[in-house]
Every structure is written in C-alpha cells, then in structure tokens.
UniProtKB/TrEMBL annotation:
This is DUF3223 domain-containing protein. It comes from Pseudoalteromonas luteoviolacea (strain 2ta16). PANTHER family: DCL PROTEIN (DUF3223), PROTEIN EMBRYO DEFECTIVE 514. InterPro entries: DCL-like. GO terms for biological process: chloroplast organization; chloroplast rRNA processing. The lineage of its organism: Bacteria, Pseudomonadati, Pseudomonadota, Gammaproteobacteria, Alteromonadales.
Amino acid sequence: MAKPIAFGVYQFRTKKRAIEEARLRINKYQGGERLSVEDELFFASLFTLHSEFEEKKGVGIDHIKVQRDFHNNRCLYIHRVDGTEIDCSWVHCIQPASRKTVISMAFRRAVKKLIMAYKKAQLEEVDMCPILGVTLTYDNSHVSYLTPSFENLLNNFLSERQIDIESVALTNPSPDDTDQRGQVAEPSLVEEWRNYHQNNATLQLLSAKANLRRLKI
C-alpha cells in the first residue's frame, strides 16, 4: 500500500510523485536564481521535515535560492535573515507521513470549499494585505488561520467528540483527482466538522509572501 507524503498544505500519494513535483519546480531555475513565492512556500514547507530543520533555519529564512554543486546538479540554499546561508537537501526531507498527518490533511480537504468561498468573498471587500500592504489578487493571496491554528481547531473538534484522530477512517481519492489528500469516510463527521469550522475558525486573507513569512520565522 502506498504511503502518502505530506507537508504544509501539500500531499502526494507516493514518494515518487513528491520527488517528481519537487524536481519539476526546481528545474525551472538556473544557478543563483531565487525561488518564486509559490515555490518558496513549497520548499519551506518541505524543509520542516528535515531532521536538522531548526539548525538549518537558524534565526529565520529570508529566501531560498537554487545553486549548482560540483557535479552541476541543482541544489537549494537557505538564505537566513542574518545574512548567513546553508544548503538544505530537499531529497532528505521526503519521507512517508504519519497517519495523524494524513488524517489532518483529509480534514483540510473537507473544508476546502469553505476556504475558497471565504477567499472569494474577502477579495470583494479587501484590497490590501494587512501585513505587507500589497494589492491582493486571487493568484497572490492565501487564506491563513489566526487563533486557533488549524491544528488546534481540529484537535478541539475531535476532543469534544472524544474521537482519537488516528481512529478516523479515510477513503482514497480517485487517481485522476487533482486533490490527492485522503477523504474522511463518514459523511456525518464531515458535516459536523464543516459546521464547527464555519463557527469557530478565525481566518485572514494575506498575500502569499506574508503567509510564507509566517511559516519561515
């Protein structure tokens, strides 16, 4: 049975698929080029799985660049906010997700339509990112959880219902589904979760760069 890989908002059915996606992203760049905001979000999320992430991150990530090694292979360097830099192997980071992480991703999937509806509604009312002051568009904006975080919100929901997260049954999406996060199998639980999320989640629309900055600190 395939073991999913999960980090940040990303999930892949297999290790092979995650590697393919990472290579597709990194191969767009030449040595010395800085990653785009979206690609920085992908790799900064992936780096959280590194066994030495805290050491690699240091005082905080300012940006990530592609460099060439002695064999002319593309590699990634973390440029910290204090001006120092260090290489970080994305291949080292890719590993099967725990069941808890996979189930958490399924609950994220369950409220995806709510998040997209919130984003659309906010864009009709909010013009500027409240943190960086840049103009917000559909493509450059992200929905961010304030207090509680998504993880705490989900933990509170399950705790109130006395449900162990690792006991939640999942079903797999079809292979051609563009969203490869698992699906919570029990429809009534999904409906309860959506209602709970609607009533208790505190969301904010930020620019992708501002949301990335929250991740990298």
